[in-house]
Write a structure and sequence with these properties.
The chain has about 300 residues and is an alpha/beta fold. The chain contains 9 helices and 15 strands.
Length: about 300
């Protein structure tokens, strides 16, 4: 008996007919029909009743499908896992990233990959300074535009352009007058990143406004620290919209100056250039690009 014919019989049943199975498997419909006919001849039993509209299994077909389908499903799963190992979707994928980007974007991609490839492990380190993927042994390191890129032989790819917004707590705004123009921020306590040198805004009339940060109330490279400070009513914070979204939805923060556009936060992937890109790295970046496209952040 041909095991391939038996497998194709199971696939025809799974897809509910020869035409659907042929499309899914990208094989001629005639080849599937011939496989089932050979199997029926070998077993000397009719397995399928064919009509113009529906396909029915006979009693012999139901018994064969019940016994064989789980075995072939497991074989296909094992084959895909073996193929993943051969393609390099295994071992440990080492990633360094700023906290803000890791928590809200990379974690979801890492979980998706690990769910698909059981042999893959991920080490995702949160960094607050620029990362050199060569000296620190990372497969991928992510850097923000403001952070200076490491002086080493690397490949740089832009992967995300994140919208940034201004936020403050309702308690803070109850005591301080809500700004109507970016220049009014100079009279307010600001919560800034250590990488910030100024805040730039594109105004509704197309002009550009720059806000100096010399009198900032709190400076931290950790976005979560800045978020907590803003929620505590200590000042106005600039952070990516995705990072502040939950606090806005819960009423702990409000967005400010919505008609003024902050400079986006551009995120780059830093890759070692001394060797070919491993398949696990290529797939991670591919999934990340899909996420960026879905969010309009490409």
């Amino acid at each position: 008996m041909s095991w391939d014919d038996c497998d194709l019989f199971c696939r025809v049943v799974e897809y509910g007919g020869f035409s659907a199975a042929a499309r899914a498997l990208e094989r001629p419909k005639s080849s599937l029909s011939a496989a089932v006919m050979r199997l029926e001849a070998t077993l000397e039993a009719r397995l399928l009743e064919r009509t113009t509209r529906r396909l029915h299994m006979t009693e012999a077909g139901e018994a064969l499908y019940h016994d064989m389908q789980p075995l072939f499903a497991e074989l296909r799963h094992s084959y895909l896992e073996s193929l993943a190992l051969r393609r390099g979707i295994s071992g440990t994928l080492r990633i360094g990233s700023p906290y803000e980007f890791a928590a809200h974007h990379l974690a979801a991609v890492a979980c998706t990959m690990m769910a698909s490839y059981r042999q893959l492990r991920v080490q995702l380190d949160v960094q607050h300074e620029s990362v050199d993927p060569l000296s620190q042994g990372y497969d991928i390191a992510f850097a923000m535009l403001e952070a200076p890129l490491p002086a080493s032989t690397i490949v740089v790819r832009r992967v995300f352009s994140l919208e940034r917004r201004l936020f403050a707590s309702p308690e803070f705004l109850a005591l301080a007058r809500e700004p109507e123009h970016p220049r009014q921020l100079a009279q307010l306590p600001l919560i800034v990143s250590t990488h910030d040198t100024e805040w730039r805004f594109k105004c509704p009339d197309g002009s550009v406004e720059r806000v100096g940060l010399q009198s900032s109330r709190l400076s931290s490279s950790n976005a979560d620290v800045r978020l907590q400070a803003a929620i505590a009513g200590l000042g106005v914070m600039r952070v990516t919209g995705t990072f502040g979204q939950a606090a806005v939805q819960s009423g702990r923060l409000r967005q400010l100056l919505g008609s003024y556009v902050c400079d986006p936060l551009r995120v780059y992937a830093l890759l070692p250039a001394k060797r070919l890109m491993p398949e696990k790295v290529r797939l991670f970046l591919e999934l990340l690009n899909e996420q960026a496209a879905a969010l309009g952040a490409a």
